[in-house]
Amino acid sequence: MEITPYYDKQMTCIHCQKKFNTTKIRKSTVKVVTTDSDFHPTYEGVNPLYYNVFVCEHCGLAFTEDFSTYFAPGTREALQSRICNHWQPHSFDGERTHNQAIQSYQLAIICGEIKKEKNVLLAGLALRTAWLYREQGKTDWEIRFLESARDKYVESYLQGDYQGLGMGELKILYLIGELSRKLGDIDMATRYFSRVLEKQRTSNETRIVQMTKEIWQEMREKKEKDIG
Fold it and tell me: Where are the TPR repeats (predicted)?
């Protein structure tokens, strides 16, 4: 008997406290084929990115496992007025389409901003939304969310709110550099890649350093070619 990649998980909404079902993907069935320079994975078969966001069918709150259960003063009321009061109850359970996945991320970004989640978390949601638009070939929308992700990562780095969430200093510097490069902001890309190379001796993130060196070389060759 073939094992399905999907399984149901019962969640409790962190806002309304009601229970709802969400679909998850078995890790044993996930196979990454390639990875882009901004860590976008291409999967063989089912795409687990579709199922990272939980959407409460009762109140409309969209959140991930990284969302805090803490609500800053006034944020519950803001969520109620801006999201919950306009929500038509419906479920995101079961297999999701590409568009449903994008909807779930966009809703999570709005909820995360209202709830005042950390910049690094909002940046990750924006980056994954950009990846989903990349898969659809919608370049304008991809760029829009890459820009949003880059700006949030900058805020996160300046505030230091990335610490303790599985994001090392070199990785966030690299991502700011690489997203800037993809956006055509070569000056900013150069600044942040330089910081990665400056800190390489005190870091054990050898993969990030190697990726930076390869991109640095690529940028230098392109610059020489453009000048020539």
Answer: 170-203
Same domain, 149 and 221: no
Please report how many Cα atoms fall inside a 13 Å half-sphere around the Cα of residue 75, on the Cβ side.
18
pLDDT digits (tens, 9 = 90+) for 48-97: 999 999 999 999 999 999 999 999 999 999 999 999 999 999 999 999 99
Please state, rounded to an integer, the average pLDDT across all residues of the chain: 94
Residue 1 in domain = no
Query: pTM (2 decimals)?
Result: 0.95
**Domains identified in the chain, total number:** 2
| Residue that finishes a domain, picked among 151, 167, 183 | 167
- Exposure of 204 by Cβ count < 10 A (0-12 exposed, 13-18 middle, 19+ buried)? exposed
Q: Are 121 and 66 in contact (CB under 8 A)?
A: yes
